[in-house]
Amino acid sequence: MDIEVLFVDDEEDLRRAASQMLDLVGYSVRAVSSAQEALAIISYSYAGIVVSDIRMPKMDGMELLKRAMTIDSDLPFILVTGHGDVNLAVDAMRDGAYDFIEKPFSEERFLDAIVRALEKRELTLENRELRNSVAQRSDDLATQIVGRSDRMRQVREQIRAISATPADVLIIGETGTGKELAARAVHELSPNKNNPFVAINCAALPIEMIEAELFGYEAGAFVGATRARFGKFEHARNGTIFLDEVMSMPMDVQAKLLRVIEERALTRLGSNELIQLNVRFIAASSEDLEKAASEGKFRKDLLYRLNVTTIQMPSLNERKQDIAELFLHLVQQGAVKMRANPKHPSDSYLAKLASSEWPGNVRELRNAADRFVLGLDVDNESSLSLKNGDLSERMAAFERQAISDELHVNDGYLKAAYKALGLSRKTLYEKMQKHGLSREDYKKEE
Q1: Are residues 292 and 366 in the same domain?
Q2: Are 53 and 61 in contact, with CB atoms under 8 Å apart?
């Protein structure tokens, strides 16, 4: 994303010098001579930051700051001050300014502030886009298999192509990557979507009863079989059978499974009657079945029969660019499930999630989202924001925490909070919006 610098100063020499400095290091810059010109450019979706002098005719930098904050309170706004303006700049920081630079300034100081502000703006716009994609996504499959990375686009393309056919499928991926979700998506897009989808966790089936559970049995087939019973396979007739962790299936049962897959029919224990199934088999494994087959731990013929088509589910560490969007999606799901109204996670929090390791993959991320919905990760988010990032991010985190603490002490009563913080009601309201805080979250329960 190309983020530009909007430089506002009524002195032509300063505009030219700043433009040359930024051009030399490769930044896009637009220099204007008045606050009015700047306001004509600034918008909520403006892909840029503002650097403005304070002392200007007609409309000064302070007034420009106030108006810019009403357009977008997340817009990084850097004020350039002269000698004697420092106190004024500190007040401006309280009103929403991102940083201030005192004249005369070094090139290093100027560029450091610019770089941090550009990074913040890019992150803000990216996360807004992610939130919009979560809220407005029209592709039904993309609402189930979330992610805009090339790997996830490929997974969705495979699912669409496979679902229209009766082909069996093998899904490979680490624990928690969404293998069953992909299997259900194949079923729900298939012509048999209104027929049963039967998920079987092969690792959880009792060894001594696995055949009876899968194939069913007739009365008298074994001691205790007082009446006939359908097996799980038979319950899935005309639908889809999902065999999770198929590697866990004993070798002798693998041989019988192979026969069922080849004939699309089974015989119950204690019977000679062949029962037609007309099902699609989808198998999943978190282990390398090719390696297991070469080591004699999994039947090669069964492997070749199952992997007519193969879907490889990537781990979260292989698609880190999807983590923020996926977390927002999981937060929405958790909010519905728990009948909660969580605040939006901050940009710095989403960035930290995206840079973290997730050995448990989507399952672990879902747990984090549920904790966030329940408000159990609020302290973690605050401490995470305070301990990480540059000075401006830490200041923003501190500001958010201070407001949150005051609202908590005053049970959401705004007048007491803004007086204690030394703010106007309008400024407190704007900062609450900026940090995703709601007074309703701090009111005492009746």
Answers
A1: no
A2: yes
CATH number for the domain harbouring residue 280 = 3.40.50.300
Residues 281 and 350 in one domain: no
Q: How many domains does the chain have?
A: 3
**Amino acid, res. 290:** E
Region 182-197 average pLDDT: 94
DSSP single-letter state for residue 377: T
Whether the Cβ atoms of residue 69 and residue 95 lie closer than 8 Å to each other: yes
**Per-residue confidence (pLDDT) for residue 408, from 0 to 100:** 75
pLDDT digits (tens, 9 = 90+) for 152-161: 999 999 999 9
Distance separating alpha carbons of residues 43 and 297, to the nearest angstrom: 62
With both helix axes pointing from N to C terminus, report the angle between 323-338 and 361-373 in degrees, rounded to the nearest 10.
50
Query: Are 161 and 309 members of one domain?
Result: yes
DSSP annotation of 175 reads T
**Amino acid letter at 98?**
Y
State the pTM of this model. 0.57
Instruction: List pLDDT tens digits, range 20-32.
Output: 999 888 889 999 9
Place of tokens 């996360």: 127
Cα gap 202→215, rounded to integer Å:
13
pLDDT given for residue 137 in this prediction: 44
Give which of 113, 126, 32 is closest to 76, Cα–Cα. 113
Of 285, 313, 341, the last residue of a domain is: 313
Q: For residues 259-296, b (16+ Cβ closer than 10 Å) or e, as one string?
A: ebbeeeebbbbebeeebebebbbbbbbbbebeebbeee
Domain carrying residue 170 = 150-313
The answer to whether residues 309 and 169 belong to one domain is yes
CATH number at residue 85: 3.40.50.2300
Q: Judge whether 140 lies within some domain.
A: no
Phi, psi of 277 (to 5 degrees): -110, -45
